Amino acid sequence: MDGQFKGIQEKIIGKYIWVNITSRNEHVPEIQRYIGTVKERARCIFNVPPFKKLPAGITAEMIYNVIFWLNSFPSQNGILGTHSPSKFITGQDINYKAHCILEFGSYVKVHEEHRNNMDSSTTGAISLRPTGNSQVATISIV
Fold first, then answer.
1. Burial group, residue 15, by CB count within 10 angstroms (0-12, 13-18, 19+)
2. Could you report the per-residue pLDDT of 71-112, keeping only the tens digit for each?
3. Which of 23, 58, 68, 90 is the most exposed place for a label (fewest CB within 10 A)?
4. Secondary structure (3-state) at 17
5. What CA–CA distance (Å, rounded) separates 70 from 88?
6. 45: closest CA among 107, 124, 129, 137?
C-alpha cells in the first residue's frame, strides 16, 4: 500500500494481516505489472474501432470492461486457486450467454418504453461491457 493507508496498520494489528507500506516514489512491481496489463488490453480495444478519439465516458467504460474480464478468470499465481476474483466476491461465474455475446463497441438495439402505437420500440446504442448481471444478454450502454 502507499502512504495513504498508513493509519490502517494500527487497526489490523493482531489480525494476522501483514501490511507493507511503500515509501514515497517507491513502486510495487506486482501493481505496476497489473497496471501495464490493463493499459495493454485497453490499447488493443482502443485500436479496433476506426476512431482517433473516444469520449471520456466511453474511455472509462473501456477500462471497466478490461477490469471486468481480468477479474473474471483465476490468476495462475493467485491466492484463490481455481476461483476468479469476481467469483470470490460476487459468487457468480461467467455465463457465455449473458457475458460473451457482445464485444466492446458493438452496435445494438435496445428496448425503449413506448406506447402501443407504430413508434419505434428500440433505439440504437453502443455495447460497452457486460453489466455483471446473471440475466441473459445484459449490457452496459451509452
1. exposed
2. 888 877 766 677 787 777 777 777 777 777 778 878 888 877
3. 23
4. coil
5. 13
6. 129
129 - beta bridge partners?
140
Q: Which grid cell sits at 107?
A: 452496435
Region at 74 (left for phi over 0; alpha for psi -120 to 50; beta for the rest): beta
108 pairs with which residues across the strands? 125
pTM equals: 0.67
Q: Provide the grid cell at 131.
A: 453489466
Q: How far apart are CA 138 and CA 129, in angstroms?
A: 9
Please tell me the total number of residues recorded for the chain in this structure: 142
The total of other beta-carbon atoms located within 10 Å of residue 49's CB is 12
Distance CA 56, CA 39 (A): 15
